[in-house]
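# step 3/5: fold
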Amino acid sequence: MRQIQLRQQQQLQPVQQPARPSAHVPARAVSAQDVENETLDRAAALWTTRRIRSFFLLLEQPPRAAQR
């Protein structure tokens, strides 16, 4: 019975939305450094993805007999 009362009280309380941090922080201009950092981040992500893909392709290849 106590649990039902607690649930009803919780449902009656309004849900508060958390404040967005961006609403309190003034907007700043995008600098050349920001653009360069974004470009480097994308390049690193692409390079990492290719390395991972290459690794999985190597795992899928059938084992080769020793060629000596």
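# step 4/5: annotate
The radius of gyration is 27 Å.
# step 5/5: archive (pending)
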